[in-house]
């Protein structure tokens, strides 16, 4: 994941806007899980894509939705704090 971050991955936090407001990864975009399928255009041309959330569950679902819609290089980053740590390395 760190390599993908250094390559300029599209960082997507799939938590709710309220969760995102409480703390998030700098430079990440908040697209809540329930909006991923309706906002696919925001993912077009992005490579790689790293999705993450509070526990890794919602990001796993987001990864599946994106892959079902033809996106190839999607990484489940799991917990948002882990992604934040990976960026600071």
**Outline, from the CA principal axes?**
globular
Structural class of the helices, strands and pairings? Answer: alpha/beta
How are the strands of the largest sheet arranged?
A: 2-1-3-4
SSE run: HEHEHEHEH
Give the N-to-C terminal Cα separation: 12 Å
Radius of gyration: 12 Å
Chain-averaged pLDDT: 96
Helical content (DSSP H or I, runs of 4+): 25-40%
Poorly predicted regions: none
Written account of the structure:
The chain has about 90 residues and is an alpha/beta fold. The chain is built from five helices and four strands. The chain has helices at about 1-5, 15-20, 35, 55-70, 80-85, and strands at about 10-15, 30, 50-55, 75-80. The protein has a four-stranded parallel β-sheet. β3 (about 50-55), α4 (about 55-70) and β4 (about 75-80) form a beta-alpha-beta unit. The longest helix is centred in the last third of the chain and has 12 residues, at about 55-70. The radius of gyration is 12 Å and the shape is globular.
